[in-house]
Give the backbone structure.
Amino acid sequence: MSTETINRNLPFRMIAKTLFGLEEILSKELADLGAGKLKIMNRSVEFYGDKQLLYKANLWCRTATRILKPMASFKAANENELYHKVSNIEWGKYLDIEQTFAIDAVITKSQFTNSLYVAQKTKDAIVDQFRRTSGRRPSVELNNPDIRINVYIFKNECRLAIDSSGEALFKRGYRRKTGKAPLNEVLAAGIVMLSEWDKKSSFVDAMCGSGTIVIEAALLARNIAPGLTRKQFGFMNWPDYDQQMFDSICKKARGVVIPELNFEIFAADLREAAVYDSQDNAKEAGVVENISFKHCAIKDLIPPEFPGVLIINPPYGERISINEIEELYHSIGDAFKSNFTGYDAFIFTGNLDAAKKIGLRTSRRIQLYNGSIECRLLKFEMYSGSRK
Ligand SMILES: C[S@@+](CC[C@H](N)C(=O)[O-])C[C@H]1O[C@@H](n2cnc3c(N)ncnc32)[C@H](O)[C@@H]1O
């Protein structure tokens, strides 16, 4: 069994988890924060750094869902071996008897088939060790535990990590109101970053729903760390938590916020309630002053001056007929041509058949997932007369 170094002065290994398709962007974010030995993996990026970097990665990474600190890895052929090897870890180093904890287990291509059972066996090994040594045991709390342990099993290779984020990092805390199909905040930030928007020209979401895309765009343009409004991170419950260090990282982050923007961010939606919701959410996120809101259909939208970037996430058609959805996507193509000349227009959709009805040539197609739905981010360059 290999256990990770706990010498506080040495750089240690970390794993930043993300969504499919955002690995390279996350790796760049981590490199900008000073991470070393970056290695892009499937839905995650491995990197090395110190405690400061662990705090910064949680505060700053727009495209990370969690930052994990690996603690042990070993092979196990069955649940009993798993129990035995988990028992060999000195749990008192990671968890106080008065703290609550939870196990998240993920299994891929393995003889282990039941992730709940794996989580239970791991939990049993931990609490039995505490019982043996002190006669008492820490409690399990599934919703808001003090310490989260991550178990990942690939074939017969088990990797245990302690989760420094606590609640997933896409829970930024600003989204109080949502429509029927809000985007995950990490996905929205990733889409904005994949668009290569220059953060100097106009930005529009003409189907804003709860406003996630424009809010993430405004946070990015104003250099606001996405974790700045969060009250709680998992590492705050760790025995080595250095509050002074984290306070100073937050203070620096507040100091680099760009106070005003001199271009327009624009949000619109056909549904009036969506416009109000996105306004409320933008207020929570502290960027309502940077966004103009309008209640209208995309065909009637007069956007701010080009050049600019338009990103829309239209309905995929689960609740309406094929004819209606095809008509909607056809009208999106018409609106791109008539209203968004000079823009780089992007559509993020899980309905690839309907997307063909847009009737324009894509210049980029990026595969992403919205939950379990395979999606594409499609780019259309709407050249202006002068650019032709
Ligand atoms: C999938 S939701 C967008 C979700 C959004 N990205 C979020 O994070 O909350 C699609 C939105 O498109 C809006 N919509 C549908 N047809 C429209 C049209 N013709 N013009 C403008 N908005 C439209 C809907 O009202 C809905 O809010």
The longest strand covers residues 66-75. The chain has a mean pLDDT of 94. Residues 2-163 form a domain with the VC0802-like fold (CATH 3.30.2130.30).
